[in-house]
Structure formats: structure tokens, C-alpha cells
Amino acid sequence: MAIVTVSPKFQVVIPRKIWLEYFAAGPRASQFAAVIEDVVQLLVPTIVLLEVTRRVMQLRDEDAALQIAAMLRQGQIVPLDSGLALSAAHLGVTHKLPLVDSIDYATARQFNATVWMMDADFSGLPGVQYIAKRP
Questions:
Q1: Could you tell me which residues come within 8 angstroms of residue 113 by beta carbon, excluding any fewer than 6 positions away?
Q2: Domain-by-domain residue ranges, the chain?
Q3: Cβ of 86: how many Cβ atoms within 10 Å?
Q4: Can you name the CATH fold of 14-130?
Q5: Of 52, 55, 92, 116, which cross-links 102 as Cys (Cβ 3.0–4.6 Å)?
Q6: Residue-by-residue DSSP string for 74-102
């Protein structure tokens, strides 16, 4: 099992949906800009790195995807090890969360960080900064 040491300065997990909204300059992008651009505080689960890079590669091209991957890698990359996987399984079942979202949430919980979410499933959960999809 890999051991990840995270400095106290890392305190935010941003899920793939918010990253994609930001990179696409969507209507809510400016709402997330300050937290995303403060890369020293970002925890980036490997599943987020995979999903965001893959989606950008599908929509644009490999060069754009690699540029975005480089930005994501400015944060602290958190690998999915067995402990985090088990925590994500537990949280996913307990709170009825989709697989990837449960990994994001477990990552935030493991490092006592805040996870930003636009999904109503997260409204009211501890450690979540919930932003409704539609204002």
C-alpha cells in the first residue's frame, strides 16, 4: 500500500464535473476559479486525473488533455490504494453515492479536506461545499 503524506496546506478536493465546467468555461466556471487556481491547496484523486484527461482528449485532442493533466498535477495527486478504496466503498453505500463521487468524498475525508460538489446527493454531508447546479 502506498503511503501518501499530505501537507496541511492541501485542503480541497474538486471532482471531475467541476473541473470540466471550469475548463469548458461553462456558466459556473467563475464560481470555481478561485479555488481551482489556488493549486497549492488541491488534492487530486487519481480517478479525477484519469476522467478529466480522458474527457478532454475525447472532446478536443491529446495536446489539450496533456496541458490540463499538467495543471491537475500541480495539486497533490492522491492514488487510490486499498484503504481509500474500502473507505470509498463504505461511504458510497452509506450515503448512496456513485462510485467516482464516493472516491472523491473518501479522499476528502481521509485528509480532512473539503470536497466541492454540484450533486444534490452531497447536500448536507459533512465536509462538503455544495453548490447547486442551477442557481
A1: 10, 11, 12, 13, 43, 107, 127
A2: 14-130
A3: 11
A4: Rossmann fold (3.40.50)
A5: 92
A6: TSEEE---HHHHHHHHHHHHHHT--HHHH
